[in-house]
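Hi D.,

Good news: the full-assembly prediction came through. Inputs first.
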Amino acid sequence: MNVLFGAAKALFADGDLLTSSVVVIIKVLVAFVLLLVGVMLYIWGMRKWIADMQNRVGPAKAGPFGILQTLADGIKLFFKEQTIPSSAHRGVFRLAPYLSIMPAFLMFCVVPIGGEVTILGRTTSLQVVDLPFGAMFVLACSGIGVYGVMLAGWSSGSKYPLLGSVRASAQLLSYEAAFGLGILGALIHTGTLSTREIASLQAWENWRSFYEGWNLVPAFGAFFIFIIAALAETNHPPFDLVEAEQELVGGFITEYSGIRFAIFFLAEFMNVITMCAIATTLFLGGPSGPSLGFIDADNFINVWLMPIFWFMIKTIALTYGTVWLRAATPRMRYDKLMAFCWKYLIEAAILWIMFEIALELAKKNGWNRYTTVGLAATACLVLYGVLMLCVPKPGETVEEFR
Amino acid sequence: MHAMLAATESFHVNAVLFYALAALALAGAIGVVISRNPVHSALFLVATMIVIAVFFLTLSAPMVAIVQVIVYASAIVVLFLFVIMLLGIDRQEMLAADDRKYQRIGGAVLGACTLVALIGMTVTNWQLGARTASRRGIEEAGATGDVDNIRPMARTLFTQFAWQFQVTAALLVIAVIGSVVLARRSSRPSREEVAA
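Then the structure:
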């Protein structure tokens, strides 16, 4: 039982039950509202940014700068009729959207969005829960998220959704391997699975923390692998094969309407935001950043607002990057997508992990840093070259086994 | 707060938690067996897997619990579902047509054996080998105050059981390559045979 109580102790710092429960409830509500509002703003921002890139105005009617457009769309979807095809498996059809949204929200619970603060006399970290295995919890949630898409397509009881979901499950399973290796890249440097500890290990001391503390510099390869795999995990363009409308009508979502349709899209955008937040935590130092020097260090602004500000800035920068990708890249072809994952990305990820382990060993044993980097990089590149020679080229026929 | 934790660590809460989880796990397991639709069976299997993960959590093994969710609930059952969907065997008629007499008898015999083995293990406090039964990792975790027992587990896995670990990895690779070889074996004659 120790672990459950360990988690309970992490949730409730010392004190009486009532205040601790209130703090927990506040944290859960704030995280939930933050995500929902975040999704609303993200969709609006995405439409505005893409409109800018395409020389259009974008949503402009609802509210100032069209900021209420998403809210209006949500309300409309909420009141629309929900249809269930007669050939659908009704129970699973109703269940699927919730299987999609729950992991999306749960994943955000382990992300620390600020530093250590005091609420109602309780010192607590600004995250819903600090699990001792937070980084693996992310992996578990993204794995469970596959069920939503998969069962939605299957339970719709028609051809195109089924094809879409079979595709989706193959894609998500494949990229999960690269996703896990990307997370591993950050964990090698931190040596812990707890997201709070990962963030505090990258804490800001001075300007040198940017390249000495943050995981981005020593693990930049893992960062790019993580971002690519995370985009594929969230069905984000250019990996949105799941809903490729030229080929599949709408993929798994074809038969959904009304609020269930909205829940699927909510989950999808929530996942994008959560992935950006996790990338911020793992690689970009989370809430770490310079605080305001002209105000006291224990002032409300420096304790509360500045860490949240830095976290938000980094996450928004990453989400802007995803929007940019959405606007700029054409959708990949399905065979290219799978080949990219299995033939290039996973190999690169494994070799990058080996390279990082070599660096970490060099640091621990006091080897010459430059020799180690040179030798390890050469070895990895040679190995990668040999692996690439083994990969059949496009159009090349492979001898069949008999 | 500590008083509350101490109180909840009593026998009653553990027992209530155990029976509630056991009921859920059993419900899931029965669902797997009696569902007419393979996809529903797979979903019940996921429910059972997740409840078992919670069991591990209550046994102070969070690492095993999270691995249970990642490997079984989110990889293996997804693959089951993938195969079910890809082959389109989610129709009841096909299952009914494949109803063989020996299958049922064999299933009953194996089920009875498992039941006897389980009862035997419960009654006689059976230990599965001296090494696995050693509580080294747990004791180590208790000594260092490591609540997440990730380090002790990794240390045992990569030192004491390193050889077994590598052999298991090799076994998995062999299984994958073997299945690819078997699946890609074509019934068509090869080029050499055509030429000859």
